[in-house]
Amino acid sequence: MAGHAVPVVARTREELADARARLGGDVAVVMTMGALHDGHATLIRTARRGAEHVIVTIFLNPLQFGPREDLSRYPRTFDADMEICRAEGVDLVFAPTPDVVYPDGDPGVLVSAGPLGNVLEGQARPGHFDGVLTVVGKLMHLTRADSAYYGQKDAQQLLLIRRMVRDLDFPVDVVSVPTVREPDGLAMSSRNTYLTASDREVALCLSRALRAGADAAAEGPSAVRRAARAVLVAEPLALIDYLVLVHPTTLEDVPEWYRGEALLAVAGRVGTTRLIDNMPIKVGPGGGALEVFSDVHAEPPAAS
Ligand code: AMP
Predict the structure, then answer these.
(1) In angstroms, what is the span from residue 98 Cα to ligand 1's centroid?
(2) Residues framing ligand 1 (Cβ under 6 A)
């Protein structure tokens, strides 16, 4: 991995436009908030296989953080991030400050995530997904990327980005990448650095619950929910916000008769840290964990 050049760093819109103009051919973007880990590196690697050039954006978007959330303590590790970008062969890193992205202050016009933005993570974090979609839309325009890569780890975000691109006709191909986990099953996250050693042990109940749910998938939805809940109730130090088994595109609870692909998702607080995790699963005969949803679920359900 030593052979790659240091990526060009753009801090302003002008620098980005200049550097972008020099990238010919297909361009992919990987959007991040920095504090890069192997999950981000996997997104970059996947993007490199799918496009000639890769742009990584590093931007802590104030618009998607609530007033009592962790914006001020979010880890900032720019030098280490650059080393990962170099090692992974990234061409261009766009790392703007908020005044570059929002030159007039908070934007008056936002992208609305609609009803899907008010459930699950959106219920816990009001306005979060409007802030996410607004910056994702801006970064798609500013980078003029042909494709954009997102992690299944943030399943609701991925779904909403797909909906935005489709509903608002963005000319961008959205690609999802399976969740990258630590060897013990913990989903990689920049927020894992907040966890103490004992928090980290507690946090394992999230991925263990998902795994237990997936293992019960052949028996139907209530068996999945029951198996996952049993793991969580055995760990009282994890304060669970929600555990749901929902349809991958409507995010509505699947009924007991449901057979097919579903999203098993969990969120909760461990110590001072809010963690999320999920697993795409197939419910019914031969069911179990899936890496990602099949293409049919990249589209909204047909109107009935
Ligand atoms: P973040 O920096 O947390 O905003 O994440 C930037 C991108 O990396 C998003 O598309 C995330 O879904 C993705 N990502 C974060 N953690 C993981 C992970 N463990 N596995 C796969 N993708 C991830």
Answers:
(1) 20
(2) 32-33, 39-40, 42-43, 150-151, 153-154, 177, 179-180, 187-190
Q: Cα separation of 57 and 122, whole Å?
A: 23
**What tens digit of pLDDT does each residue of 154-201 get?**
999 999 999 999 999 999 999 999 999 999 999 999 999 999 999 999
Closest by CA position to 293, among listed 264, 267, 254? 264
Distance in angstroms (rounded) separating the CA atoms of residues 188 and 77: 16
Catalytic (active-site) positions = 40
Distance from the first to the final alpha carbon of the chain: 51
* Strand, coil or helix: 187: strand
Question: How many residues in total does the chain contain?
Answer: 304
Cβ-contact 238, 212 below 8 angstroms: no
Q: How far is the CA of 193 from the centre of ligand 1 (A)?
A: 14
Question: What gap in Å lies between CA 236 and CA 191, rounded to an integer?
Answer: 21
What digits encode the pLDDT tens for the residues 53-79?
999 999 999 999 999 999 999 999 999
The verdict on pTM exceeding 0.85 is: yes
Lookup: tokens for 56: 């990584």
Measure the CA–CA gap between 246 and 237, rounded to whole angstroms.
25
- Indicate the DSSP class of residue 33: -
Query: Can you list the positions of beta strands (E) in the chain?
Result: 8-10, 27-32, 53-58, 92-94, 147-151, 173-177, 238-246, 260-270, 273-283, 288-289
The 8-class DSSP code of residue 243 comes to E
Query: What CA–CA distance (Å, rounded) separates 208 from 277?
Result: 10
d(CA 121, CA 291): 21
